[in-house]
Amino acid sequence: MAAPTGTGTGDRPDLLSAGLFIGLGALGLWMGRGLPFGTLAQMGPGFLPRVVCVLLIAVGLAVGLPALRRPAQAIEAVRLRPLLVITVAIVGFAYAATHLGFVLAALWLVIAGSLADPGGRWRHILPLAAGLTLFGALVFVYGLGVQVPLWPF
Amino acid sequence: MTFIDLLMLGFSEAITPANLAFCLLGALLGTLIGVLPGIGPTATIAVLLPITFFLPPLAGIIMLAGIYYGAQYGGSTTAVLVNLPGEASAVVTTLDGYQMARQGRAGAALAVAALGSFFAGTVATFAIAVAGPTLSGFALSFGPAEYVSLMVFGLLAATILASGPVLKAIGMILIGLLLGMVGTDGATGAERLTFGAIELFDGIDFIVIAIGIFGFSEIIANLERSGSEGVKLAPLSRLWPTREDFRNSWGAVLRGTGLGTLLGLLPGGGATLASFSAYSLEKKVSRHPERFGTGVVEGVAAPEAANNAAAQSSFIPLLTLGIPSNNMMAMMLSAFMIHGITPGPTVLTNQPEIFWGLVASMWIGNLLLVVINLPMIGLWVKLLTVPYRLLYPAILLFCCIGVYSMNNRIFDVILAAGFGLLGYAFRKAKCEPGPLLLGFVLGPLLESNLRRTLLITQGDPAIFVERPISLVMLLATVALLGLMILPAFRRTREEAFQEEEA
Question: Which of A91, A96, B372, B502 might form a disulfide with A105, Cβ 3.0–4.6 angstroms?
Answer without folding.
Answer: A96
